Amino acid sequence: MRAGEIKEGVHIVRAKIDMASSNINMRDPALYRIKHESHPSTGNEWCIYPMYDFSHPIQDSSEGITHSLCTLEFEDHRPFYDWTLEKLMPSGLITHRPRQIEFSRLNLKYTVLSKRKLIQLVEGNHVHGWDDPRMPTLSGIRRRGSPPEAMRLFCERVGISKVDSFIDVGDLENCIREIMDDTSERAFAILKPLKVTITNWEGPEIKECFEVPRHPKKEKLGYRTVPFGKEVYIERSDFFDLEGPEGEANDGRKPKGFKRLLPDGMVRLKYAYVISCEEIIRDPDSREPIELKCKVYPETRAGVTPEGMNRVKGIIQWVEASTAITCQINQYDRLFKTEEPGKATGDFLDDLNPDSLEKLEGCLVEPSVAIDTADLIAKIDQHDKESSNTSNDKIYHSELAYQFERSGYFALDTSSSPGSTVFNRVVTLRDTWAVPEKKKGGKNNANQRKRGGNAPNKSNNGAVLEDVRRVAIRAGTILEAGPHPDADSLIVCKVDCGDEGGELRTVVAGLGGKIPFDDLLNKKVACVTNLKPAKMRGIASSAMLLAASDGSEGVVEKVELLNIPNDVANGELISFDGKEPCEPDEMMKSKGAIKAFERVKACLKVGTSGEALYVNDGKEHKMVSSGGAVTVNSLTEVIIQ
């Protein structure tokens, strides 16, 4: 075989282990097969190649891997992984013993992650290569402009599981919004321009410049210069033409809630002046407006409302005509139009979203964007010329990102050059795919919340609650504990969680063989009390015990329940240092609420001093009660589950 004397498929090398094994991978698994093809790295030097299952543990060991994280389908392959290591370790060929652990695959709605399907998208020209910003590849995600911090935040919130499920891609988009809202500078960009001429303008074409903040919440990022003059452009959608085709289609009425510019109406240009529309210049064929003649009110400069004038509610963005820079904007959206592509027809290509890319030519951006773009492109060109640079310090075009006000978050595309600027939309300002909420308020909304509906949980002051403040972690005392009648790995407890009338809660926990029953009786514990009751092997569990685990599997796993000080009353709501008091959901049973709890659980850990922590965005918040910190006996730097 090694000499190349045998054709492909004629011979194969197998390991004869146990032909009676119930696991087919442990009978006579293939080790080497013949392949007469040129290898990308070694050319034609070899014609036999190891099978993946055989090379996997050897490569892990030789590279010093400690934990090999695989998807669930590799669970049946783990015995062969361990067998290979066991047989080779005595030979001295490998010296390190890695461990294989399986977790569920990360499945995203409206997305395909199969390499086979991604290849079809590329080879079928359904996308523009592997780095197409709609592709779920690293190069595609980077080119689109998704920040690395957003990807890490998404992974942190999703956590890990051994249950296959589909994660809403909206969760990823929300992480991107959260990071980019904090880090992206603001700028004016007009995607579909409509010309506005100031009729009462006096003096030079550009009379003044406004110094406006680059970020409304971060003064340290400095200011940018926005020129203002006789001619400006506004977004076409910021003017509703009551007298034109769109007005006729709406029976001559403005859209509900529309507060921007109308014929004979007034609007404020952000950071500048109030203007009023006095005349509309139309296209003779389509009757669409092509220019607005407007009057400016000089006394309204920079947000001032003079005495006697009603406050103008509408505020819109704009760019000065002579200094605006023309660019192309690629409006990217989800690549597929259904949550599970191909589920209905069997062919995922049938569910491609025809509106996943809209190219807008002739868009206008303020001059500060052009200056920033030119600086970055020059920096990239200089960087690429220096031979000493490595891939680790590479500069990417997408590092230049903005929130184009009222339009979304955008990043510079790799195709940009000094004479041609292209921006990609990373994500919209709001989730445009979400199911519209019903009208808030009134009896129906109250009933929805009571049933655990998906309306956002709000605090007493109307702000949306953080996930951790929605979870009810309460002090309780275990009064009874015994084995589950049908499962050795489970125990059944009666816990006093301070409920009205002294009613005890039945709690089923996976602590069988982990903690002696005598150690559980009369122990003060931390319980999650607002989860939907769940049946565990026939017994309904109405709360969840929080425990620290060293992460081992089987009988060697070390588990310790969280310790609540004995003088803390049963039912007391546990809080977190540095956080506002919790305002828990009545019951966390909707999909959104369950996701919120999973995100919180993924952030619960034990610190170096044995104190229970909620770790989020790099900050540690101690779990505390009226009697002091919540702790564990001996474990440190482990997870809480």
UniProtKB/TrEMBL annotation:
Pfam family, one: tRNA-synt_1c
Start and end residues of each TRNA-binding domain: 467-575
EC primary class: ligase
Highest taxon listed in the record's lineage: Eukaryota
Entry GO MF terms: ATP binding; glutamine-tRNA ligase activity; tRNA binding
Reactions accelerated catalytically: tRNA(Gln) + L-glutamine + ATP = L-glutaminyl-tRNA(Gln) + AMP + diphosphate
GO biological process, one term: glutaminyl-tRNA aminoacylation
SUPFAM superfamilies: Nucleic acid-binding proteins, Nucleotidylyl transferase, Ribosomal protein L25-like
Residue segments, region Disordered: 434-461
InterPro entries: Gln/Glu-tRNA_Ligase, Glu/Gln-tRNA-synth_Ib_cat-dom, Glu/Gln-tRNA-synth_Ib_codon-bd, NA-bd_OB-fold, Rbsml_bL25/Gln-tRNA_synth_N, Ribosomal_bL25/Gln-tRNA_synth, Rossmann-like_a/b/a_fold, tRNA-bd_dom
Presence of keyword Heme: no
Gene3D superfamilies, per database record: HUPs, Nucleic acid-binding proteins, Ribosomal Protein L25, Chain P
Keyword Coiled coil found: no
Keywords: Aminoacyl-tRNA synthetase, ATP-binding, Ligase, Nucleotide-binding, Protein biosynthesis, RNA-binding, tRNA-binding
GO CC terms, sorted: cytosol
Membership in a protein family: Belongs to the class-I aminoacyl-tRNA synthetase family.
Protein name: glutamine--tRNA ligase
Organism: Chaetoceros debilis
